[in-house]
């Protein structure tokens, strides 16, 4: 399978700075029940959502949460938030990992921990596929020793012989950090791969590394989530990458803030006309950032002045067919069910035909 390197004109600085947006004036939480408008405090649960600040509910309004307009509580920050009291460290074993994932409703992640008998490989990926998104490597850099400890604990608990931490070979700042520590973890293999699009997806990575058999695959983001639950660490914030055409920032932000507040913090004076969520390859544009809420699914924000005009005429060059990793014939609408919506065909098209939209339309016909 031939994979492609995507061109990007932004290089993140090697000095690794994570900015903080952890004291927003307001947060917004989905409103499902008839809850009394009263003081709520840090970690108070409203249905499945914990307030990420200390404060008071002052209003209910329409907000966009998980891509849908819904009623949300407006909580005004009273800035009395106390540091999360750390619960005692939970012993790392597979039963406890399943327990904390179940308690926190992380069903997708929980499912990865079934069928771990006779595990052949553990693969932990620090790869972010999307252009100018760096959450995984920054999480690893932020907490390298803890995360390496957790990989080692997984190895010991599952008696797995082949254990890999995979990083792109141009992420020098995190590779150096890992190399300094790897003497302590002789049974984890640091594996470097080229910066090729789609290696952030399990099936493409395992194929590239020729890894077969029963494999536990986790991204660093997923590993960090498990680590936080096990250790009772802060889960009210998340890492998010924000970029414009020339620069890129990684920010630790309170969950459930407004996208517009976050952008104002990150790029105060920037003029932009378009906001793309979750990547230039597979993301989507939003128009109502004043009501759009930073939920658990949002990983990146790109601010653009212009987006190229799409839906131009096809000139039958055939490039889209050549680059598709799943051999979809999107021109003649064949094998559309194999499409993984990777966006490569649209990205590579010299005439900017919006093939992703065409595929979606053809599938719905
Ligand atoms: S890459 Fe674009 S121009 Fe070339 S065949 Fe595909 S849709 Fe047509
Ligand atoms: S979006 Fe679908 S059709 Fe286009 S390259 Fe990716 S898998 Fe192929």
Brief characterization of the structure:
The protein is α/β, with parallel strands linked by helices.
How is this structure best described in words?
The protein has three domains: 18-83 and 234-304, no CATH class; 94-231, NADH-ubiquinone oxidoreductase 51kDa subunit (Rossmann fold, 3-Layer(aba) Sandwich), CATH 3.40.50; 319-364, no CATH class. The protein is globular and about 60 Å long. α4 crosses α7 (220-231). By secondary structure, the protein is an alpha/beta fold. It has a six-stranded mixed beta sheet, sandwiched between helices. The protein has a four-stranded antiparallel beta sheet with strand order 2-7-6-3, with no helix packed on it. Strands 10-9-8-11 form a four-stranded parallel beta sheet. The protein is built from eleven helices and 16 strands. The model has no long low-confidence stretch (mean pLDDT 89). The structure holds iron/sulfur cluster (2 copies).
């Amino acid at each position: 399978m031939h994979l492609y390197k995507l061109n990007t004109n932004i290089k993140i600085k090697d000095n690794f700075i994570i900015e903080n947006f952890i004291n927003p004036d307001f947060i917004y939480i989905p409103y499902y029940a008839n809850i009394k408008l009263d003081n709520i405090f840090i970690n108070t649960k409203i249905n499945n959502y914990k307030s990420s600040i200390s404060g008071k509910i002052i209003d209910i309004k329409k907000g966009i949460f998980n891509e849908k307009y819904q009623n949300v509580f407006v909580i005004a920050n009273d800035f009395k938030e106390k540091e999360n009291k750390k619960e005692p460290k939970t012993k790392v074993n597979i039963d406890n990992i399943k327990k904390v994932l179940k308690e926190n409703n992380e069903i997708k992640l929980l499912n990865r921990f079934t069928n771990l008998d006779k595990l052949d490989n553990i693969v932990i990926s620090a790869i972010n596929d999307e252009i100018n998104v760096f959450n995984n490597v920054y999480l690893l850099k932020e907490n390298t020793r803890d995360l390496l400890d957790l990989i080692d604990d997984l190895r010991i608990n599952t008696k797995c012989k082949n254990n890999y931490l995979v990083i792109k070979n141009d992420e020098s700042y995190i590779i150096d950090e890992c190399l300094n520590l790897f003497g302590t973890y002789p049974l984890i293999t640091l594996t470097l791969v080229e910066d090729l699009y789609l290696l952030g997806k399990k099936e493409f990575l395992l194929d590239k590394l020729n890894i077969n058999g029963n494999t536990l695959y986790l991204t660093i983001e997923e590993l960090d989530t498990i680590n936080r639950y096990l250790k009772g660490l802060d889960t009210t914030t998340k890492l998010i990458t924000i970029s414009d055409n020339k620069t890129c920032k990684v920010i630790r932000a309170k969950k459930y803030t407004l996208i517009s507040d976050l952008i104002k913090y990150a790029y105060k004076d920037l003029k932009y006309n378009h906001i793309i969520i979750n990547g230039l390859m597979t993301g989507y544009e939003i128009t109502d950032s004043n009501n759009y809420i930073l939920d658990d699914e949002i990983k990146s924000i790109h601010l653009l002045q212009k987006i190229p005009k799409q839906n131009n005429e096809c000139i039958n060059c055939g490039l889209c067919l050549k680059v598709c990793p799943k051999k979809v014939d999107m021109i003649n609408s064949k094998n559309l069910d194999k499409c993984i919506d990777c966006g490569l065909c649209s990205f590579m098209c010299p005439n900017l035909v919006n093939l992703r939209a065409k595929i979606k339309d053809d599938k719905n016909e």
